[in-house]
Amino acid sequence: MSTTELNAQPARAFTHTGGAGPGRLLCLDIYRGLMVAGMIVVDNPGSDENAYWPIMHAKWNGWTPADFIFPSFLFLVGISMVYSFDARRRRGETNKQILWHAFKRSLILIAIGLLVNASPIYGLDVHTWRWEGVTQRIGLCYFFAAILELWTGRRGQLLALFGCLFGYWALLRFVPVPGAGLPGTDIPFMDPVQNLPAWLDRKLFMGHLYDQTRDPEGIIHTIPAIGTTLIGVLTGHWLKSKRGTSRIIVGMVSFGILGMLSGEVWNRWFPINKNLWTSSFVLFSGGFCLLFLSLLYWITEAKLWRGKWTMPILVFGMNAIAGFVADSLIYGPGYTFTATGANGTKMSWHEAAQSYLEAAGLSVANASLVYSLGAVLTCWIMLWFLWRKKIFLKV
Fold it and tell me: Is the pTM of this model over 0.70?
């Protein structure tokens, strides 16, 4: 497979039938590009504990802006799927042919994640090789959402979304954790270690988990993550409708506000938690995705404020899978390789860079931010060479 045939985005060219007229929905590539840049910033802090709050993930319950990045990718996958499958149907492909293509794409995404986790730059040990991960979850969510998009309508997708959210809540609330007991009675509800998703991941992948005892991309909480993808699918249908631009924006804003409010209300009984991808987190982050997309849609599709400012963002947005790989090329060595820090002791690359930036007079948080922005610039330069050659990695 050539580099020009490998692409992480399920859809590349979009046609809009609403008020903005036909053409590519630039807002989707802009959104994707901003999230790739945000991912690199969050993944590569100079200081893991003292970076600025917005670019650090919440430790457990609660949220930070960084927690919206991964849901945004799944949200965009769902939107892209609607356009991609519609284009394939118009070319005469059957649902079975489209599903087979989606299945192969899912396997490729899973394989990419496994290969990145297996990279020698992470100091690979086959006994601790992490099997779960970000692109693995994207691949699974894409495939199951594809089945629903191909064989159900919007009503069925909405029912599936509610099924994912309430079914997952019921699993975590009413199913006893083997060896520990019933959540909320025998053990604390949503205990970081004694919860059903963590138990299953330890049962299946003990020794291969991100946090030793649990994994943020675990098996069971892929269920609500499918719900996040379905919010994207439903949004894709809304964007493709023949409603006028203003009505499309008002609809996204309205449902965005409703989603965030619903997530905040449910948070009282089922806390917002990215690590467990709780149902309240799905609603809250899904509402954010809708609001952020509505803003970008208004700027690029309604007002048509486009131009040179979009190019740096599109370098990331039109090559997201390359951005993910580039991020791993920065992240891996930064945490694996060692160097001499400003105080003369051996430490990891990112810690050494942080120490020199602090020695130059920057505060801990500012030094961490400078390191993160340096990682973004390095990745952007790598992807810019692909941009110049018009190489866009596709799956």
Answer: yes
